[in-house]
């Protein structure tokens, strides 16, 4: 005789598995919300240091604003990457995730989505508020938010490749930074460039379109790279 | 039917084992034995598909398990050294999450019942970080009560368990085998498990 508990078991498809993993990760983020808040506090402190450091010249600040917010967003996203796979690796859940019938690239996408919801969306919401410290005008703030909204998923996706590659290595955190900061340069240039273009009245359409294209490209490629990296790291 | 075909495993520079061939019918209990460091865990991970064999093949129901990975993984439960329990979740959430991940989503009632049977009825609302090692192990093993998958790979499942829980687990495995399941496990403590066919796979003597 089998266990009575087994009567309720239902076989699930890939969509259900994807949502299940996403929900689990978001629940974990919620339980460890102090970590997520730390990243946001870090973001706002780094951005706020610049007006204090370079002085209160409005023209200078307006010039710097976009770039500073973007560099800080890059660093904040980096700071949160070490949690992406390391905790699951340490407690053995990553093995269970790898053994799930869900195709590994989709697994990676679910984890990255959770990471983006926990860091990318709050960064997008905070960016315009912090941008106001630099005297950016309405257009500039709008373009800044749009850029961060398009750019942070790219940061999460590229970061996931680095996090998966350095899994279980000593000094992995520093290595992730060295690996992925150079790869994020295009995002930085396009994002900060969009704000500049909007400020100078040129229109940010081209920059934002390129950011969008970058997002589509990484969205297609990165999950496969993460999957391959996870297999290598856990072998 | 699980078939191992001249499996070999290399870790770093060292060849852990090679030429492991065996064929197991449903209902077989396989105890993987060997001294520390002879590759018991590596063999289980290899069979589970967590690492690639240096040579050889694993056939499940006649299919190459690496080529038919998704189908194979739908038939497989693997419980490793690290129990795969999240500290931040309570036992019910853990069991439901791990079942959902394995494409065997369960209702909350079923999860509570299974955990109750593992003797955790009083602890269901506590985060797992406050549980003892043995209790966390029980949370992980509760998976075995709710799964229907035919192939179980258990790495040191009796670690950290008290005698009662050991008996309970042996009983669960016995029923799984009687229902036509298969189980590969490693242990250093001999535990009697009811099985019609019981074999040993000895590593580290060649």
Catalogue the unreliable spans of chain A.
1-10
Q: Which CATH class of the largest domain in chain B? A: Alpha Beta
Tell me the Rg of chain B in angstroms.
17 Å
The total of helices of chain B stands at: 7
Distance between the termini of chain B: 26 Å
- Give the % helix of chain B: 25-40%
Report the sheet with the most strands of chain B, covering strand number, pairing sense and barrel closure: 5 strands, parallel
Q: Indicate the overall shape of chain B.
A: globular
Helices and strands of chain A, in N-to-C order?
Answer: HHHHHHHHH
Can you characterise this structure?
The complex is a heterodimer of chains A (235) and B (206). With 235 residues, chain A is mostly helical. Chain A has one domain (16-234). Chain A is 81% helix and 0% strand. Chain A is built from 9 helices and no strands. In chain A, helix 2 (33-54) packs antiparallel against helix 3 and helix 3 (58-91) packs antiparallel against helix 8 (185-199). Mean pLDDT of chain A is 88; it is low at 1-10. Chain B has 206 residues and is α/β, with parallel strands linked by helices. Chain B has 2 domains: 1-75 and 153-206, P-loop containing nucleotide triphosphate hydrolases (Rossmann fold, 3-Layer(aba) Sandwich); 83-149. Chain B is 31% helix and 27% strand. Chain B has 7 helices and 9 strands; from the N terminus they run βββαββαβααααβαββ. Chain B has helices at residues 40-48, 69-73, 91-101, 108-117, 133-141, 143-146, 163-178; strands spanning 2-11, 14-24, 28-33, 55-60, 63-64, 76-79, 151-155, 182-186, 197-202. In chain B, the strands form 2 sheets. Chain B has a 5-stranded parallel sheet with strand order 6-7-8-3-9, with helices on both faces. A 4-stranded antiparallel sheet of chain B has the order 2-1-4-5, covered by helices on one side. In chain B, strand 1 and strand 2 form a beta hairpin. In chain B, helix 3 crosses helix 4. The longest helix of chain B is centred in the C-terminal third of the chain and has 16 residues, at 163-178. The A-B interface holds A 1-12, 16-17, 20-21, 24, 27-28, 31-32, 90-93, 95-103, 234-235 and B 48-52, 70, 73-74, 76, 78, 80-89, 93, 97-107, 109-111, 113-114, 117, 127, 145-148, 175, 179.
